């Protein structure tokens, strides 16, 4: 089974109309939206996933179906993929799609009590004021149970944490009179990401405590990655990916990150953005991840980042929205289905 995860940049801006969709929006004309959609479809066809996990999907399933019907369909016009949409997230919904006739026989929402509890608030100090307050996920993780052909079920958790983005951040950071206010806002965003990471790891711990052989994949845009950024170095914020992987004090419950051992370091990135804080232009960042529970570690046959497929869809430097498929690159893993 091949699983692909991809944050497809603001798919919602391709459409208007929600449940009665048509191409184009205030941000993109219909022609521009179709150009971007065609590039995305080219990348997906090149990677040919059995299971496709998406972030920043459109706000309505009907809009996704319009894309699939027009750009990812067989010669008879039947979409090659079907699937489910996330519970919340507004204009940036989560999706899990399966290729019809592929190596995923079926999938459905997980509805066990532990998963349902992810919809509930929990107490966290996201403001740094030493007071707990009710908090919930910016986008509740989409949890599905997948039935691979010829294998045992696998639980797939798709995550898109709170963004680190702070409006007008570069100007405020470079203005001595506004820098402290920017830092306060940036730290609040990171505290929210940390809260979401800790809550999801608590969920994963509970699943493993019930069954240490649970087969779990967590994938998505974690908005964080290897290394220590300015805020982690200087303001003692957390690396969220480390949180999700697990604690060294409980080695039997540590998840594995198959990309780290299979992708050469120069290629170990899924996005490139200018870092105005550390003053690194076009900085390569590993923001998107796929981690697997201990029971699945030895069943990962291969994993990688879809650089070649992504770059084949670029026009020029990819600066305009119509010149690129997304601002993130997809990642993939091949899973030998455990019996």
Describe this entry's structure for a reader:
The chain has 339 residues and is α+β, with helices and mostly antiparallel strands. It has one domain: Deoxyribonuclease I, Chain A (4-Layer Sandwich), CATH 3.60.10.10. The chain is 27% helix and 26% strand. A six-stranded mixed sheet has the order 5-6-4-1-17-16. The protein has a five-stranded mixed sheet with strand order 7-10-11-12-15, with no helix packed on it. A two-stranded antiparallel sheet has the order 2-3. It is globular.
In short:
This protein is an alpha+beta fold. It has helices at residues 30-47, 61-71, 113-116, 169-174, 179-210, 230-234, 240-245, 258-262, 307-312; strands spanning 2-7, 15-16, 22-23, 51-57, 81-85, 93-99, 104-109, 122-124, 133-135, 142-148, 154-160, 216-221, 271-275, 280-285, 288-292, 300-305, 331-335.
Looking at this protein, list some descriptive labels.
339 residues; single chain; six-stranded mixed β-sheet; five-stranded mixed β-sheet; alpha+beta; Deoxyribonuclease I, Chain A
């Amino acid at each position: 089974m091949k699983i692909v995860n991809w944050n497809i940049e603001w798919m919602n801006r391709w459409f208007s109309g929600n449940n009665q969709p048509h191409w184009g929006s205030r941000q993109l004309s219909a022609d521009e939206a179709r150009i971007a959609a065609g590039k995305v479809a080219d990348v997906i066809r090149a990677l040919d996933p059995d299971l496709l996990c998406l972030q920043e999907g459109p706000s309505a399933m009907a809009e996704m179906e319009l894309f699939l019907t027009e750009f990812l369909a067989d010669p008879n016009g039947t979409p090659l993929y079907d699937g489910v949409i996330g519970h919340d997230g507004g204009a940036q919904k989560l999706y899990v799609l399966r290729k019809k006739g592929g190596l995923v026989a079926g999938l459905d929402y997980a509805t066990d009590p532990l998963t349902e509890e992810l919809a509930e608030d929990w107490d966290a100090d996201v403001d740094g004021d030493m007071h707990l307050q009710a908090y919930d996920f910016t986008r509740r993780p989409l949890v599905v149970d997948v039935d691979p052909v010829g294998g045992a079920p696998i639980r797939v958790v798709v995550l898109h944490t709170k963004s680190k983005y702070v409006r007008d951040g570069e100007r405020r950071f470079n203005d001595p009179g506004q820098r402290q206010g920017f830092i306060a806002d940036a730290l609040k965003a990171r505290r929210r990401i940390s809260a979401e990471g800790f809550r999801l790891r608590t969920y994963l711990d509970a699943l493993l405590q019930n069954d240490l052989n649970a087969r779990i994949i967590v994938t998505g845009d974690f908005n964080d990655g290897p290394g220590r950024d300015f805020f982690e170095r200087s303001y003692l914020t957390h690396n969220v990916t480390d949180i999700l992987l697990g604690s060294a004090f409980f080695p039997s419950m540590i998840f594995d990150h198959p990309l780290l051992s299979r992708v050469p370091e120069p290629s170990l990135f899924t996005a490139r953005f200018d870092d105005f804080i550390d003053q690194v232009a076009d900085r390569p960042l590993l923001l998107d991840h796929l981690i697997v529970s201990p029971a699945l570690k030895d069943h990962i046959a291969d994993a990688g980042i879809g650089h070649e497929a992504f770059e084949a869809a670029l026009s020029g430097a990819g600066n305009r929205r119509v010149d690129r498929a997304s601002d993130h690159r997809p990642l993939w893993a091949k899973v030998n289905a455990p019996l």
